[in-house]
Structures are given as structure tokens and as C-alpha cells.
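B., you asked whether I could sanity-check this one before it goes into the benchmark set. Here's the sequence:
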Amino acid sequence: MSTSQQQAAEVPVEPVWVPDPAPARLPRITRFTDFVTRRTGITHPDYQSLWRWSTQDLAGFWAAVGEFFDVRTTGAWEQVLDDAPMPTTRWFPGAHLNYAEHALRSGADEDTALISVTEDGTTTSVTWRELRDQVGALSGWFREQGVTAGDRVVGYLPNSQHAVVAFLACAGIGAVWSACAQDYAAPGAAARFAQLEPVVLVASDGYRWNGRAHDRRTEVEELRKALPTLRATVHVDHLGLPFPEEPDTTSWQRATAEPAQPVFEQLPFDAPLWVLFSSGTTGTPKGIVHGHGGVLLDHYKLLGLHLDLDVGDRFLWYTNTNWMMWNLVVSALLLGATPVLYDGSPTHPGPDRLWALAAEHRTAVLGVSPGYLQSCAKARLEPGRDLDLSELRVLGSTGAPLPAQPYYWVRDHVGPHVQVASTSGGTDIVSGFAGGVPTVPVWPGEISAPLLGVALKAYDGRGRAVTGEVGELVVTRPMPSMPLYFWNDPDGSRYQEAYFGAFPGVWRHGDWMTRTHRGSVVISGRSDSTLNRQGVRLGSADIYAVVDGLPGIRESLVIGTELPDGGYWMPLFVVMEPGQRLTEDIRTAITTAIRTKASPRHVPDTVIAVPALPHTRTGKKLEVPVKRLLQGSPLDQVAGREAVDDIEALRYFTRFLPDASAGAPLTSHRPRQAP
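And here's what the prediction gave me:
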């Protein structure tokens, strides 16, 4: 067990945020609880009671969500879910609906539906009337190209209004959407899209990043050639660059030239809505398919009850189009809220860029990464003092475990009124397992609670639920947003193996988790990159929480690898801030901090400076590929080039091989060149 995570579960800690006992606006989850009581006659005195009911009576809970949010269906359905075990559970068999119809129904015509901001400050606002007209126009153009329900439409696009319009136009006619950000080169995008055999490509001329406009027109042409099933391509002039006139292509302006009211096909509840892809770090990216109805219900729950979004709220979460958070941001439209879409670097021209955007657009919910919060603390930013963040209610964080210190930093430097909503979830379910609750306190280093409808538990190695100690994150009952299937997995074997191989009939997600005695959740890293010293499991997040907050260190990566002679080597790699050098004094400071703030078991065998760390395209540290490199696997077998943000950073680790330094003093280790 991870010592520091055990302490998190047992030691009393004062919350950094508590719900307002007399809020000016009653949280929607409180109104939902009253609605459930009227509907069922069951009273729920607190969130834990409501959560238990929501996981014990799945049919009652999800039917209540549908009724509370007025999810409109056609067709006859008699049961909420059938009796089939995961992953073959069917939801609302017989019901028909359409995601796009719900996304476009809430806002008044002249209110703002979307705000799109580019890195150079160019801002475009789209009203609800304009959004409906553009979606109707583009869906009409799709139909003219022969696109029908089940066909695939793909987008090679930055985070702008064009991607939202194209997705909704696609969903409205029942075609299946998939998107890829333009930092992927054509081969990386094709590795995903070609699996789908798409009939239409919507592609931008480029995107902005770190003070530069990146022209991607050449990549667009290469991508078109790699997709032989295309009937047509829509060119988007996001940067204002001209595309050549070619057969089977048209401009965005022409494709959306005739405003029209959208026509929504009524589709089976489990009709495919989109395909999201896994990172592809260990092979061909897996296409994960989610359905119209399951996404609708789950996103109403997550955004409406847990993040408390309402009509007119502004919602900004830093993301790009191939990360599941983009899909969640678009779903803010379901509540009548306004997504704020940003194309650019979160730290250009300065580290306060996202805070400035949140202030300028009066954002109610802002989402960032743990790394961004830690960099803001190191930069000594004072967003709460220097900017007007009075509208900000919730600060979301996801992508990695959020250590305790940023919770205090948000309270002290952003504002005590801001609820930190750290969230654990994934592309797999395009939603969350655990997160914030408007009526539950926030404890530093912890996620407030499992989300409603999620039968979340921590399992030990024998498949027994444990509390107060680290176990495998599992979900024991079905969720409507679980994948319908994997693309090109006709017998379901890859799907079954991915989640249900360890505990039959139980979803194993691949994270270490602690369920504390107060009901909160602590995530301590991926279970497939576990640190295991002398039979004791350690969470890498415990080490990152200490090291990444130290002055002079930009970020760190810890790996535990078994040696051929039966030994175990656990190096810690650090990236220093510009102008800083890893000295023996700093090594000592690092190991001392880990020993005192985590435990002696967490102290690495050695500390090594590297120029950069490799990440997935969504910013997650590549622990497993680096571990495999240290075990001697060839570079081309540990990760796909297009899945890594910096392939040279990953290649750098090929020079390190474990040897007798496994038990050597920290100061004696020197990297040696791999043969």
C-alpha cells in the first residue's frame, strides 16, 4: 500500500472548501434530490445516501435523470436497462432520440451559444440562432453528398466553432463523428481516420500555438490521399489561408451558405454518436464508440448535477479536439451554457493566459491540468488579486492526480469561494468516475466523491472491496456511457480483454484508487506502471506531488523496473527549470523531501536530470513506454511516433540501462549509452 495514500485516508484534514449553507442559487443537485424524493418517496439526508441509491437502483436513478432533464424520446420502451451483464447491457431498448436535437434546443435565439478565441486574441461569438442555422445548412450539405445515418464524417480541426458545427450537423443526421487535432501529422491522423472509412473530411488550414500560425494545408492534402473512401472535403479557413480549388472539395462558406433549421433523425438509443481514439502509445489507436443516448444521460448528470452548469453559464476547459474533454465541453450546450473554445497555448503570451480568458469571458467553470496549476504556483501568479474572477464557481482539474498543494494555492491565490473539482474519468467512458459535488466539502489531495450512478470501488488482488487502502479502481455495475463497442472488434474480444479480463463482469480501469472512510477518493497513478518495492505498492502520484512542487524543477518521472537478476531499480528523472542545474545539494533536497513528505520507501535509487519528458498528446506522462525502454524494448515497439508529443524526449531514455546502480548511492549513478 502507498504510505502517503494510507495517511490521506486516515488522518483528519480540514477541508479547503465547504458548501455555502445559504447559497444565493440553490444547486441543481439539491433540486434533483427533492425531485427524487417526490418521485420515489425515499428521503436522502446527504450526498452519500443519494449516491448509494443511485448505484443500487440503476433503473430508478437513470429514469429520474432522463425525466428531470426532459430527455425526449420517441418509440416505445418498457425498461431502462436489461439484465445482460457488462459489457452487453442494453439501455432503454426501443427508445429513439438524437443528441444534436437536445444540444440545440435550450438557448434563446439572440443569446450567445459559442465563444471561439484564438491565441492572437481574435474572438468570434456565435448566437444560438446562428448556430442552429449553420448546423442546419451543413447537415443539408452533408445530405446532398449522400451522407446518411451510420456513415462516418471526420474532422482535422483545431478547437473552434467550426468543429462544433460540423459535429452537430453530423450527429443530427445520424452520421458518426470523429476528430483529430492538427498537431498530429497526416500519418497520425490517418492511423485513426482510415480505420473508419470516412465519406467526408472537414479540415482546417491550420492552428495557432505559442505565438505562431501553423500552416497545415500540406498535411490536409496528404491526409486526403490516405483516405480513399472520401467523397468530399470541406476546407475551413481558420487562419485565412487559401486552399487550391480541387475536385470533390468545397469551402466552409459554400457548405454553410444556406441557413436552415436542422432536421433531426430519430435514432435508436444506442446508435453510435462518435468514435474517440485511445492514445496509441502501445499500438494502433483503438476506436472507442459511444452512443447518442448514453452520452446524453451521462453528460446531463455530470455537467448539470456535478458541475452545476446552467443556462447562460460560460464553460472553459483547456482541451483540443482529440481529447474527450472537448466532447464534454460541447455538451455544455445541453444545459444552455456557453462553451468558450480556445485555440492556442495555455501559457502564451504568459502563464496567466487561461485565468485572463476566464476573467474576460466571465467564466463560471474553468478546467485545467494539475501541471498548469503547479506552474502557476511556481510563477507566483495572483489571479484572484489581479483579475476579476467573481463569476468563477468551479475549477476543474483532470488528466492526472491533483496533489494537495494546488488545492491550498487555489484557495489562497484564486479565491476561497472557488470549488476545486478534481475529476477521475477517461476517454473510455467519455465521462467521470469520481469528481466534485456542489454539496460536499473538498479535502486537499482528494476527489470529493464517486459520481452519481457510478458503482465505484477499490478492489484488492482477490477482488474484495477495500476502504482506507489502495486497490484497483473498478466499477461493479453498468454505466450508460460505457462504450458500445470497439471499432473493428466484431466479436468484442478486445473490449472484453481491455476492461473485464482481471475481474469477470467487473470493469477494471487500470488506476490505483483509495476510497477513504469519509467517502472521498484518492487516485495514486496507473496500476500498469505500479512501483513495487519489497512487495509494497507505491503510487507514482505520491512522488510527483512532492517533487513537482519543488523550486527549480519543472516536472518529474519515476519508473520502477524489475532487473534480470531479480533486483528492482527505481530511478527518478527530473526536468530542471531553465538556468537550473541538478546539483548534489538539489538531489539531497529532493530525496529528503520525498522521505519526509511521502515515506522512506518512496525515495528513488537515483535522481537523473533529463532535458525533457515525453507525454501523450493530451499531456499524460509516458510511464509505461519509458519503463519498457529501460527493460530493453526497442523504441518502435513501445510507442507510436504520432502518439507522443516529443519523440526525441522518449528516444533520450534509450541511453539509460539499469545495472549495478540498482542499489548504489544516489550520487554514484551515471547513465551509460545503450548498445
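One thing to flag: Confidence is low (pLDDT under 50) at residues 1-10, 660-675. Otherwise nothing jumped out at me.
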